[in-house]
Design brief:
Elements: H1 13-19, E1 24-29, H2 48-58, E2 62-65, H3 105-114, H4 125-141, H5 147-155, H6 157-172, H7 183-186, H8 190-199, H9 201-227, E3 231-236, H10 245-249, E4 258-262, E5 272-273, H11 281-286, H12 290-299, E6 305-308, E7 317-321, E8 334-336, H13 343-357, E9 361-364, H14 373-381, E10 385-388, E11 393-394, E12 397-398, E13 408-411, H15 420-427, E14 430-432, H16 433-442, H17 447-457, E15 467-469, H18 476-483, H19 491-500, H20 503-511, H21 516-522, H22 529-540, E16 546-550, H23 551-555, H24 559-567, H25 591-595, H26 599-609
Parallel strand pairs: 1-2, 1-16, 2-3, 3-6, 6-9, 10-13, 13-16
Antiparallel strand pairs: 4-5, 4-7, 7-8, 11-12, 14-15
Helix pairs in contact: 4-9, 5-6, 6-9, 12-13
Amino acid sequence: MVDYSFLKNTRTSARWEKFGMKRRSGVAVPLFSVRSRKSIGIGEIPDIKLIVQWCEQTGNSIIQLLPLNDTGFDFAPYNSVSSFALDPMYLSVQSLKDVNLNPFKKDIRELRSKYDGHRDKVDYAVKQAKIDLLWKIFKRTYLKGNNKYSNFAAENAYWLKDYSLFRALKHKFGGLSWEEFPDGYRDRNADAVEEFRKENELKIEFHSWMQWQLFEQLKKVKRYAEEKKIFLMGDIPFLVSRDSADVWADRKYFNLNKSSGAPPDVYFANGQRWGMPPYERAELENSDYAYFRNKLRYASDFYDMYRIDHFVGFFRVWTVDMSEPEETGGLNGKFDPPDESIWEVSGKKLLDAMLDGSGMLPCAEDLGTVPACSGKVLWEYGVPGMDVQRWRKIDNEFVRNYDYRWLSMSTVSTHDSSSMVEWWHSEAGTVDGILFKRLCSNKGISVENIETVIGRLFDSEHSYYNRLLWKNGISVDDILSTLGKNADECGDILLLYRESFGEKEKFLNLLGIEDESERELLLKGKSNLNFVRRNLEFISNSASIFNILLLQEWLCLDENFLRKIEEKSYRINFPGVVNDANWTVVLPFNLEKILNLDVNGEISGLVLKSGRV
């Protein structure tokens, strides 16, 4: 048994005393992906209470929520229009505070009928439909002198005034980016802004009122979770949308000539270009990181813990010039700051400010291209990193669960990756087709010959979604002779080969699945309950202090759900891509049904057996 008492000697010791230095199990949930019988069109804040009840049943004690921040046109939660404001689409109209809903019962019925709970994708038109109904309710019921609302508005004026004004301006100009506003509004001319405030007082107040309603509903959920001894983990996006209230109001903190992203790797051959502006670090430091302190100050009203998105960005961010063509993705970027010798100091300054800003326990998403200083800082500060099963390897061999980092959150997949079942079916044992072709082209191999090479080395019948599966029995000598190159010329391709060839066999060995007939079936990319069970037992028994799995991964222990996830993708997001599949997945069972699944007892037993709470 791991002794986690070393956490008493870290920067976060007081927080660990509150949580107890013990192994915990949890569930990660995108609220937009779940439904209750009461919610309209999308998961709503009161629905989190049902997830709390599910955690009670299954022995989980942490609920990790994807960001609930107000989103922009692409509804991507990590590309929010505010680091503070919550998204009105998550409001429960039936649960509004200090409102008489009797005059609006027909409107609510019609809204529910139009956006029923039987869709397999989120229809984000529900957001505007809700806002339209909320506007009708607000105009008829809002009265000045509501002390609770007035106190909320006064206490949160440091972000709420700019956000509400920004939202009203966006409405006036038909959703245009703030960079396309008329000069006076774009550049926040004092006279123009004040005149707009006077002329649009009620509309500006409306956005503040919606935020108060969201505040009240989420605070109520937090109190309920506390009663049940369930911890809520928020997700604090490191970056914010270029077209956001934050950038419009405080653009000195942002470099608008650059886009943030990620360098190329074996999973994303072109790198990533996200569009969000990187920070002007000197300006952040000059203000004693007030912007980050304030973000956490507000989030601490709702959460006990928070996930630091893109933690490696604390040290340096991959940046791409805005002048770069879109098709180059993140290929032609560079790290900012470029001087590696200051990365650790830079990251610590920001982390210190965030720890001073709230009493929440931070957890870090330290994935991607990770600088050497990252792990050292996490250990020193007592902040858990993230260990994703398929990426935890040493010398191309999967790491045993007892060798996972003690100070980490273990998991089998993330919102940015394929699910466990999809990975097994189409990714395990493969290489990225785009990357392989580029590496061949860099070696002077013609397009025609590249296709011939692929035909000789890879199993085209079982290669999916531009992932190339090696043929059985392929060796280093086969690769070199097919390419007509020597080992020195092909080091990068041989590295890919060693990382991926035989990956499925290695994984089955890791799980201890020895039956030959079962292995034969599984090696074809099929899944079964035994495979899922062995996998979840493996990850639950990791040395990681937290084990947090996506709700859909837990539900794979239910045979009906497993069959559904084999037939249809329940992937949440594909990074670096904007399409109508990202951030739209909806689970096929509502929360009431999930609460009554027989498999909940099995999950509880698995969690209990792993020694987690």
